[in-house]
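Let us work through a complete example step by step.
Step 1: write down the sequence.
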Amino acid sequence: MLIGALTLKQIGIRASLAIGTVTFAAGMWCWATRLTPDISDDAMLLPLILTGFGAGWQIGPVSTLINSQTPNVLIGDGMELYLVQRQLGGSWGIAILTILVDRQRSFWSNRLGESLNDFSLGTHDALRDGSAALASTGLPHSQAEAAAMGLLHARLLVQSIVNAFVDTYRYQAALGVAALLLVLLFHRGRPLASLRHWIVQIVR
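Step 2: predict the structure and record it as tokens.
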């Protein structure tokens, strides 16, 4: 936030927003490509830095842009409205992402579960190896088989949750790219004309 505020006048609002959206989208893509059930702490550092830097960098330019036309007399009220809307937007965003994670978790649980059946050699091998490993610790054979089935099911749930989060990270990276296009295409005072001119050029 501090770096974004200090460099805002030098590079401009649009450039600051572009830097923030690119960095945030890159961080989300890093999450999408690195997240696994066995991800290490070191592997999480880069996406955490990128997403934190990108989100923080955008707060100053967005605040300045929203309140740039507000009269000095109303600047306090304007900031209050902006902060309320930002808080509401964050709550809505978290709610939407929670719904997406839940839906995608169900999707991936069903999709991954399709390969776990009586006709799958991999399933039989996993259950046999798991049962043998648990039996070696002293569990009775019947309990070892049940425990191996439980461990396999737990692994399925963990992988489906990880895949669900990966999907949401991809969605957020796509939103970052869409935001970058809006920043690059929408000129101040001429958003619709600029968008129409860009569409015409693409069609031609």
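Step 3: interpret the result. The mean pLDDT is 82.
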